[in-house]
Amino acid sequence: MNIQTSKKTLWGALAAGIFAVAAFALMAHAATAPTVSCSGAVSGDQITWTATSTGGVAPYTYLWSGSGVASGTTSTAFTVAYPANATYTAMVQVTDASSSVATSSCAATVSAYPTVSTGTLNVSLSVNNAAGGSATPSGFTVNVSGANANPGSFPGNASGTPVVVGASSTYAITVSALPNYSASMTGNCTGPLAAGASDACAVTETYVPSAVTPTTTPPLPRVYKPELTINGDGRFLVHGMIVTSVASGSFQGTVWGITYTVNWSGGLYPEFYLRDGNGGGATNPVTQLQVGDEVGVSGIVSQSNPLVVQANVVRDYSIMALRPGRREGQFESPFYNGKGNGGQNFFGASLPGSIATTTAETSSVESLNARLQQLLTQFHNLQNIFQNRENGNGHTNGRGNGRGGN
């Protein structure tokens, strides 16, 4: 073998060996699968996510997903800012040159934000004007006291106003008052609220009309002090009777605490002297007499009921308009009969055409003895009526017997 041939043979053997070694190394490396790991480094409210690959066949490609990670991120490392305290997770997938795939996930916690210590309350105010009010929600002022409420005072709003209140602190809601409006509340209108909680309070202001206070008309001054006379023959005479009720054919009146029914029915119409000056057998005094009027009555007591009187004269002393012939400012005469007889009253006494009422004439100053005397006189006269009736019956029977004897 010459030297030249020997050199070629040596170099060929060496090249084959090198190739064999390289092929073996390549085959050995290809047999190892790729692996990947990730980590998250926290800085304030940010996390830097990083992937590390081993094995497989380089080069590698990456694909990220997870909390706050932009879809399709392919960087080996990247940073994300997070909005609140929490633990966040990221996932990474690695693919090597031989299309082998490996995955991994990792987590990191953000704690840079202060702890939540407030809650939010939405306060709404509506107005119910169904009963006639005209107020609007903004006409009321809502106040939230306690719990460092912000805002603590604001105009009412039907949609609501958000109020931040301290967590676990007591608060209370009040509304400025407007006349005739009554407030009602529903929801969480007194606190506290839990940290981070949201709730609502609804206020309704309802219009309530004012109660109408009935007006009272003071009683007219008395024209007569109360006087009552019942004669033995049943004749009834009263001054100062107060009308308590009026019917179509009668009225009831009280004097000295006794209530009488005064009739004008049965065709025996009495003489009426009433507000408009009418008299002489008026047949419809219902439109004239009024409850509370002071009247005088002359008539006959019913034989069957001593508290019922058939009237022949009724005079209404509670005159609000002048009678014919009276001067303005002059007190109306209770005795003027509307026929021009001036001071002649219906009981036959001649009295002045005008009298003035004094305090001494009111029933409030009558002595108890005078009242009792009037009552005793009345009952005595009633007793005489019944006694005369019995005596009359006995006398008739005596005469009848005498004639029969003759």
Q: Could you give the topology of this structure?
A:
Blueprint: H1 3-30, E1 35-43, E2 46-54, E3 61-66, E4 77-81, E5 86-95, E6 101-110, E7 118-128, E8 141-145, E9 153-155, E10 161-166, E11 172-175, E12 181-187, E13 198-207, E14 227-230, E15 235-246, E16 250-255, E17 258-263, E18 271-273, E19 294-301, E20 308-316, H2 368-405
Parallel strand pairs: 7-13, 17-20, 18-20
Antiparallel strand pairs: 1-2, 2-4, 3-5, 5-6, 7-10, 8-9, 8-11, 12-13, 14-15, 15-16, 15-19, 16-17, 19-20
Short description:
The chain is an alpha+beta fold and 406 residues long.
Tell me what you see in this structure.
The protein has 406 residues and is of the alpha+beta class. Among the domains are: 35-110, Immunoglobulins (Immunoglobulin-like), CATH 2.60.40.10; 118-207; 227-318 and 361-384, OB fold (Dihydrolipoamide Acetyltransferase, E2P). Helix content is 16%, strand content 35%. The chain has helices at 3-30, 368-405, and strands spanning 35-43, 46-54, 61-66, 77-81, 86-95, 101-110, 118-128, 141-145, 153-155, 161-166, 172-175, 181-187, 198-207, 227-230, 235-246, 250-255, 258-263, 271-273, 294-301, 308-316. The chain has a five-stranded mixed barrel with strand order 15-16-17-20-19. A four-stranded mixed beta sheet has the order 10-7-13-12, with no helix packed on it. Mean pLDDT is 76; it is low at 320-365 and 394-406.
